[in-house]
């Protein structure tokens, strides 16, 4: 069976790694100058692993309904692993407020999805970035910066120049899941591939790793929804 993959070369990258995205696409991250022949050789050596990853019955199953939903009073939205009621309120509010429920101003009714997304982005920056710095200190790794980004299928990533990126959608997940994803990406600054050493680092810093991974497998598709 033919194996399709995308190659992304980077001048700052030292090792070749392969990732299988949640949409089943295969991406090869390679140091600049790595030949196509060398990349194909590595991909072929990982063929069995790639097909096992892309065929995961939970992580990659299709959504039973289209992403997103209409935001109206009585609906709910995820935040830190829990569903909270949404209420449209006709007050002087100009932006979303959270008081154990989401209050969305009537003035933003026509663009309420954008309003809630802006709120999520703000909370992601407030809660995720400080946790990254805490875990970086504990692991003894230096990072150049943290960015909250918009990806549909990746929860986090790190760059060859030691920047770490995290998906704003993570703010919908429990803190135990957020901490696991943070540790996972920071551990890649110490060990590029998913070796035994890598998983030992992650498990030591995130002892609830198995619980977090199980939550992502079961509920990850909810995070992928726009809202």
Explain what this protein looks like in three dimensions:
The chain is 37% helix and 20% strand. With 227 residues, the chain is an alpha/beta fold. It has 2 domains: 49 residues, no CATH class; 149 residues, Metalloproteases ("zincins"), catalytic domain (Zincin-like), CATH 3.30.2010. Strands 4-5-7-6 form a 4-stranded mixed beta sheet, with helices on one face. A 3-stranded mixed beta sheet has the order 1-3-2. Helix 3 packs across helix 4 and helix 4 crosses helix 6. The chain starts with 5 loop residues before the first strand and ends with a helix. About 6% of the residues have low confidence. Keywords: Hydrolase, Metalloprotease, Protease. It comes from Syntrophus aciditrophicus (strain SB). Its EC number is 3.4.24.-. One of its GO terms (molecular function) is metallopeptidase activity. This is Zinc metalloprotease.
Helices, strands, pairings?
Blueprint lengths: L5 E5 L6 E4 L5 E6 L4 H10 L1 H8 L21 E4 L2 E8 L7 E2 L3 E4 L6 H28 L5 E5 L6 E3 L4 E5 L7 H13 L8 H10 L3 H16 L3
Parallel strand pairs: 1-3, 5-7, 8-10
Antiparallel strand pairs: 2-3, 4-5, 6-7, 9-10
Helix pairs in contact: 3-4, 4-5, 4-6
């Amino acid at each position: 069976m033919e194996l399709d993959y995308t190659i992304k070369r980077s001048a700052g990258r030292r090792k070749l790694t392969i990732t299988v995205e949640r949409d089943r696409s295969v991406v090869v991250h390679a140091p600049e100058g790595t030949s196509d022949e060398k990349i194909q050789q590595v991909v072929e050596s990982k063929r069995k692993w790639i097909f096992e990853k892309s065929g995961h019955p939970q992580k990659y199953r299709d959504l039973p309904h289209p992403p997103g939903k209409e935001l109206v009073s009585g609906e709910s939205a995820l935040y830190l692993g829990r569903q909270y009621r949404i209420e449209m309120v006709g007050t002087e509010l100009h932006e979303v407020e959270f008081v154990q429920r989401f209050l969305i101003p009537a003035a933003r009714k026509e663009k309420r999805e954008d309003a809630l997304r802006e709120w999520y982005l703000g909370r992601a920056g407030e809660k995720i970035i400080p946790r990254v710095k805490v875990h970086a200190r504990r692991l003894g790794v230096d990072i150049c910066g943290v960015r909250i980004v918009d990806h549909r299928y990746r929860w986090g990533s790190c760059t060859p120049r030691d920047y770490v990126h995290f998906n704003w959608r993570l703010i919908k997940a429990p803190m135990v899941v957020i901490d696991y994803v943070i540790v996972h990406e920071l551990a890649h600054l110490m060990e590029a591939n998913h070796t035994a050493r890598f998983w030992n680092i992650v498990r030591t810093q995130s002892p609830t790793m198995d619980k977090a991974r199980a939550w992502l497998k079961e509920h990850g598709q909810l995070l992928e929804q726009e809202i």
